[in-house]
């Protein structure tokens, strides 16, 4: 059992000291990961507590919070290889109000009509060159997406609520935020002080109970060596280790950027570390909670060497996880953005952070990879495209 948690039918509940507020674990874990470590493996507390919030309570402006978030963006952009300025934070009240109103302009963006009514404290915006979204393989987008998800986890760690919104008017958001001409905003993340977990019959409550908590099993989304070989979660036995001391989100991001491994001597057995990374991907946010992704674990030495070369790595991997997404034409056509290049990088953020929290180095490669070769190595079928690879060192 997780510290301070009680298991029940559905999610787990975590009591925190954040003003006496109770934070809910919003997805049922595949296994009790905490019991495998003799020291706190605390990144799980953040990942299981994260959920999409569409209701906020009023919150006083907090310049210190905004400054700290700017530093997280700087650290993450360095670690992820994101263009400086591709992720920005906006907390000025007048700007936030403009964004809330203008985000919903246009037919495709009416799905978020709740947004203008909530007292969001700010926005994290992802902005890329308009032409990037139309490329066969966007180059700016995936690294920036990982940086945004790093911010989402950092905000969750501080007890704040967030919601990924891809249904926003990109041109209107650029103008509202005062960003440079030629950019568009494919994704906006409002954040603020969250209301209690949704339990009513309103839109937020229905989505939370009927959709957001429902997750596929590891064997449904993951494979071992090839996409036609479903991953078996039973491979993890009763292994034990001491989790590294660095478990906070900003600390883990910093270690990613420096090529670190989580601090201390703790390192999970490889079977457990890979399983933990897959679980971290399983509970990552994704568009419509369709979970239209596939993760292929590669450990066999010859195949791993080929994957390292195809991904452009200098080597030294002990295992790797390739993340691929289904290309869905309907969503890309209606919302004018490639969802496979949004959903999978979010999961890659989770995988790489969990790798470091498990005591391993993590090399995340999305740019310049040989996608066709990786698809062949991993046995990925047509319509499913590799987005990136995380190598564990």
Q: Radius of gyration in whole Å, from Cα?
A: 20 Å
Number of spatially distinct domains: 2
| Quaternary structure type | single chain
**How would you characterize the largest beta sheet?**
5 strands, antiparallel
User: What is the tally of helical segments?
Assistant: 14
CATH architectural type of the largest domain:
3-Layer(aba) Sandwich
Which spans of ≥5 residues are poorly predicted at pLDDT below 50?
A: 1-23
What's the level 1 CATH class of the largest domain?
Answer: Alpha Beta
CATH superfamily of the largest domain: NADH Oxidase
Order of helices and strands: EEEHEHEHEHHEHEHHEHHEHEHHEHE
Number of strands: 13
Spatial shape: globular
In percent terms, what proportion of residues is strand? Answer: 15-25%
Give a description of the structure.
With 393 residues, the protein is of the alpha+beta class. The protein has two domains: 56-194, NADH Oxidase, CATH 3.40.109; 218-392, NADH Oxidase (3-Layer(aba) Sandwich). The chain has 14 helices and 13 strands. The strands form three sheets. Strands 4, 5, 6, 7 and 8 form a five-stranded antiparallel beta sheet that branches. Strands 9-10-11-13-12 form a five-stranded mixed beta sheet, with helices on both faces. It is globular, with a radius of gyration of 20 Å.
């Amino acid at each position: 059992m997780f510290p301070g948690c009680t298991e029940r039918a559905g999610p787990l509940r975590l009591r925190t000291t954040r003003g006496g507020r109770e934070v809910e674990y919003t997805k049922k874990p595949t296994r009790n990961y905490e019991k495998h470590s003799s020291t706190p493996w605390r990144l799980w507390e953040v990942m299981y507590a994260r959920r999409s919030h569409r209701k906020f309570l009023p919150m006083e402006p907090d310049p210190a919070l905004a400054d700290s978030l700017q530093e997280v963006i700087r650290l993450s952009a360095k670690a992820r290889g994101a263009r400086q300025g591709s992720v920005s934070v906006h907390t000025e009240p007048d700007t936030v109000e403009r964004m809330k109103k203008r985000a919903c302009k246009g037919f495709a963006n009416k799905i978020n009509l709740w947004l203008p009514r909530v007292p969001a404290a700010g926005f994290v915006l992802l902005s890329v060159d308009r032409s990037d979204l139309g490329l066969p393989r966007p180059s700016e987008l995936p690294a920036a997406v990982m940086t945004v998800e790093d911010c989402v986890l950092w905000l969750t760690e501080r007890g704040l609520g967030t919601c990924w919104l891809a249904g926003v008017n990109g041109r209107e958001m650029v103008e509202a935020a005062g960003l440079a001409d030629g950019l568009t905003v494919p994704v906006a993340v409002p954040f603020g002080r969250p209301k209690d977990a949704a339990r009513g019959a309103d839109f937020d409550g229905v989505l939370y109970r009927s959709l957001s908590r429902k997750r596929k099993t590891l064997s449904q989304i993951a494979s071992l060596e090839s996409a036609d070989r479903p991953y078996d979660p039973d491979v993890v036995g009763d292994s034990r280790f001491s989790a590294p001391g660095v478990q906070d989100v900003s600390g883990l991001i910093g270690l990613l950027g420096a090529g670190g491994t989580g601090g201390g001597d703790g390192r999970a057995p490889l079977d457990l570390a890979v399983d933990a990374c897959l679980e971290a991907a399983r509970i990552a946010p994704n568009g419509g909670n369709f979970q239209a992704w596939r993760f292929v674990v590669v450990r066999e030495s010859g195949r791993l060497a080929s994957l390292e070369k195809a991904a452009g790595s200098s080597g030294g991997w002990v295992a790797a996880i390739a993340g691929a997404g289904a290309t869905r034409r309907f969503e890309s056509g209606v919302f004018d953005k490639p969802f496979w290049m949004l959903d999978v990088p979010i999961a890659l953020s989770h995988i790489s952070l969990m790798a470091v929290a498990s005591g391993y180095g993590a090399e995340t490669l999305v740019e310049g990879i040989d996608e066709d070769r990786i698809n062949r190595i991993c046995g990925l079928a047509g319509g499913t495209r590799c987005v990136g690879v995380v190598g564990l060192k």
